[in-house]
Amino acid sequence: VQLVESGGGLGQYGGSLRLSCVASGFTFSSSVISWFRQAPGKERELVAAINNAGGSVHYAESVKDRFTIFRDNAKNSVYLQMNMLKPEDTAMYYCRTAVRGSIYWGQGTQVTVSS
């Protein structure tokens, strides 16, 4: 199982970034995928999650109405569209899945939002 995130970088306050997570090594179209983030000195927190078909999504209150999670099962990819960025969105962002009872994480992609 491999998850590879990309798309992070420096964003401006009020701007946008799109993160990508490309998966391999498991049946992607059967799996729930989640985005988490971890800021320095803070615990890792759930940002958004999407079910296998993409018809059910969940967001943390802090990102609701600003972030959108979606997936393309033909490309084994999940995306996180982040709009109206805030400095408090600065964190390392990770995608995560569970396969046969085991949790797998990507290596993360850093998002830094300047004020």
General description of the model:
- The chain is mainly beta.
- The protein has no helices and 11 strands.
- Strands 2, 4, 5, 6, 9, 10 and 11 form a 7-stranded mixed beta sheet that branches.
Lay out the secondary structure:
Layout: E1 2-6, E2 9-12, E3 17-24, E4 33-38, E5 45-50, E6 57-59, E7 67-72, E8 77-82, E9 91-99, E10 102-105, E11 109-114
How does the overall form come out from the CA principal axes? globular
> How is the main sheet built?
7 strands, mixed
Q: Structural class, from helix and strand content?
A: mainly beta
The chain-level mean pLDDT equals: 97
What is the strand content?
over 45%
Fraction in helix? under 10%
**How far from one another are the termini?**
37 Å
Counted by DSSP, the helix tally is 0
**Order of SSEs:** EEEEEEEEEEE
**Uncertain regions spanning at least 5 consecutive residues:** none
Indicate the radius of gyration in whole angstroms. Answer: 13 Å
Total number of strands: 11
Quick structural gist:
With 115 residues, this protein is mainly β. Helix content is 0%, strand content 55%.
List keywords for this structure.
115 residues, seven-stranded mixed sheet, four-stranded antiparallel sheet, 11 strands, globular
